[in-house]
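quick one before i forget lol
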Amino acid sequence: MKSWKLLALCAFAAPLAFAAPNPARVPAEADLVIVGDRLDVKSESSAIFEEALRKAGVDVDAIKQSKRADKDKMSKQAQAILKAALGCSDDWESWTTKSIVCALVLPKDLRNLEKDASGLSLVCFIENPKVDVAAIDAAVKESLAEAKDPEEADVFAKEGAWSTLRAKIPDENLLKAFIGWRAIPEGLAVVFSSDIEGMTALVEGKAKALSSDSPLMAAFQPPAGAKDAWAKVMLRNVSDLTMRATTEEDRNQQAFLMSSGWMLKTQALVLGAWQEQTKLRLVADLTAEDAETATQLRDGFLGMKTLFGMMLAQPQQPGQEAPSPHFLQWLNQTSCEAKGNVATIDLSVTQEQGVALMQAFEVKPAPKAGADKQP
């Protein structure tokens, strides 16, 4: 059922923002959490970066025009859903969403998801004071009515407080699966699950949520130095997921131990992104089982960085494009350090490097209507 996959991906791809991200919205058994905050705040850092682009000769207006054109190419129903759920403006320049918290719960056994995905659920909570559930419902129903093959179209229904989509012909390994959305005090809840009772309990605050000592609580802490929008993506336990996705025989293979053995000794992994005045910060923290493993993680990253740099330094083959000097500068400045049992990888991009990349991929203005064609 194509729409399941589409809407599930959209939940992850949605612009991240939650003015007061709430861990009470996250199931206690969550494996991954995405948290974003402050995206409705006008960013001083973004304004500084835009001014630097203009001074460098980048056609910022053409880039914005191209982005708007991409949004305008979406179906009118998709546009209506984004505007009703996220509060996107007509020009796509802003939205009223303050924050979003997404959480993913994976099945206990990850070795055969194609045949058994029971236990899989995705929840997404959008803090937006202007959510319009009725408009979302209307757009979904209109889209279903225009389906090319009505026999395979999903079934829309109102189930209690939920608006739901269910497959007319359910997948064998997701027989009770549904996509649902409903209003909540702060905005909108969107879920993908097979357990409507469990999702109702979660939304109404009656289910077991994250405990105060859960590693995932770190995803709700703003990064130091973040004044504007920020986001974090966090895995609760890399080792646990690795154990659930492999067999003992897999884990004993020498090739596995050499390439992925670090995963068996790594617990939480969190990637944070935020913007400072002259730098886009991208920082990953990996919590290892001990200080020795953290040091090994650091040394492994530095070794790969050195090897990659040597490969890029090799003479170019005829017709092969030389690596960008700005990319090489970024690679050289990336760093990794170990403190205690935490290895920290800094992949931040400076404003100068960002401007250079935008110059390289600058979007050219679309030709004006009626312009003379070249012979």
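fyi Residues 1-19, 364-375 have pLDDT under 50 and may be disordered.
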